[in-house]
């Protein structure tokens, strides 16, 4: 399989290296299979001979016209702010990379992107009418600019026809592993074991409501209202009246900004606060449930299962603690 990685200025260093490392590892482990797939041929391409990464490293690229790839991967760029990212994809100097993506997609080449790289796919029109994902914190900006894309920021990886998109920065791992899995599930499992790649089926557990609401004044106001009334039985009509809009308008604006209904977004805020209380206090689960406006621990458990596909124990530990060994002495000092 011929894989071309399209470079732009300020390409995200780890995104670029992750895709190369996963595919190089797959090539190195092919020999362990009875019937190995063909090797992956990796070429870095760009419209400049040398590209500067986000960390200032210089990377040599081949001219795009010199390759005939089966897959075109667009790694992330180092933009950390939605406004900066939009300005980047609108930059006239990047028109040729965008046109190259568009031509590749129209020619039947599989096009793939992760994190901020998904914006280049969307700008090229490759995602119109398709399901896709992007970094959870870029969801509002993505929806506003690309309304023709069916965006699901809960997903870590989405594959629709000849297009694949992956979520936040280290979802480059999932994207690269997916490329391996397309040719050999057995080899993908082997690579995952060697590189200690775990399962990240959803970004939902990592998303922060306050960040999602940051660039939309109406969503920021709604988030503040929910947090101010978190211990109460929430009424969306009351929130709308406090904001000076109708309930229908609030429904429309939350769907447009974050892809959730007002109640679903309020529940994300509840889970965010419940996670904080479970990890930072010794409150019982019933007390935590009451603090976020739920009837009891059972209601909280159901919400965690429905929105996170997980358990209260995982919510208390947090995603950053997965796989961390704890000594018996340390465990004895942990609040239960």
TrEMBL record:
SMART domains: HTH_ARAC
Molecular functions (GO terms): DNA-binding transcription factor activity; sequence-specific DNA binding
InterPro entries to which the protein is assigned, alphabetical: Class_I_gatase-like, DJ-1/PfpI, HTH_AraC, INH-QAR
Residue ranges constituting the HTH araC/xylS-type domain according to the UniProt record: 220-318
PROSITE patterns found in the cross-reference section: HTH_ARAC_FAMILY_2 (PS01124)
Keywords assigned: DNA-binding
Protein's UniProt name: Transcriptional regulator containing an amidase domain and an AraC-type DNA-binding HTH domain
Organism of provenance: Mycolicibacterium rhodesiae (strain NBB3)
